[in-house]
Design goal:
Layout: H1 7-23, H2 29-36, H3 40-52, E1 56-57, E2 67-68
Antiparallel strand pairs: 1-2
Helix pairs in contact: 2-3
Length: 79
């Protein structure tokens, strides 16, 4: 099966999946920034890209509202 995301996008998706599973809510952009050691604009752009590609869904104006739209089986392992 062909991947519909880049390796970096896959890592973000895997982190969102595992964080949500452990904590019961999606990670904040600040937590993504801390984990991946990137700037706030980099995280925000990645979130917008994942949303535009139909890989995640967010609720506008609601914090921690990221929901994955692809099944766990299609996610890579978190490196």
């Amino acid at each position: 099966m062909k991947k519909v995301y880049t390796d970096k996008q896959g890592q973000y998706l895997a982190f969102i999946y595992y964080y949500s599973k452990i904590h019961g809510s999606a990670p904040s952009e600040a937590e993504l920034q801390q984990y991946f050691r990137v700037s706030p604009p980099s995280v925000h752009q990645m979130i917008l890209t994942l949303e535009a590609r139909g890989l995640i869904q967010r609720t506008p104006g609601q914090a921690r509202s990221i929901h994955l739209l692809i099944p766990r089986e299609e996610l890579p392992d978190l490196a």
